Amino acid sequence: MLKLFTHYRSVSAHRVRIALNYKGVAYESIFTDLDGATAARQRYLDVNPQGLIPALWVEDDLIISQSSAILEYLEERYPERPLLHGDIDLRARIRSFAQIAIADTHPLNNLRVLRYLRDEMDVAYEQRRAWFEHWIDMAFKPMESLLAARPAEARSGYCFSARPSLADVCLVPQVAMAERYRVNLSAYPLIRGVYRACMTQGAFQSAAPDTQRDRE
Fold this sequence. Notes:
This protein is of the alpha+beta class. It has 2 domains: 80 residues, Glutaredoxin (3-Layer(aba) Sandwich); 117 residues, Glutathione S-transferase Yfyf (Class Pi), Chain A, domain 2. Helices cover 55% and strands 9% of the residues. A 4-stranded mixed beta sheet has the order 2-1-3-4, with helices on one face. Helix 1 crosses helix 7 and helix 4 packs antiparallel against helix 6. 30% of the residues are buried.
């Protein structure tokens, strides 16, 4: 059985949990507290030298880090419920949309960056808050525009088709994080609509941060 090293606050792990659930892949959650004791931290560094969440243990000689690499692996190994579907043009749109979250937004707003601003650069809370909301807006504005530009036949409850795709998998954790920090998302009705549609699905519900056992 696959083992996912995860933490409820990790946006990257949230993406992977959604994908695993959607594809119906059995896995064991290894809850990993990066603020824990030194020994626990060292054990995780032995698994993933970068020390970031998530990591997917497939077997002793294959441990995959980086959520995008994990998502690609799952898509190739478990193609029965694809997250990249449709023709080549649609798959390109899905990938482009997903990369706004994976590559352009999350790296700037993840916990280690916010802690660095606080602990090493002595940035005040109000300025850290402004940083966080700025990069959320810089992601959600183009995402909202891309959703608005969809052809009529693509305007289902989800991002680009009548079923979830990689775009939805990557959008939902960003929205969940923004909601956790009480960011005003009233300017993004299409994004909020996609989020509501996704959260009616069991795969998304059971991956949500508040449902994780390490949240307790």
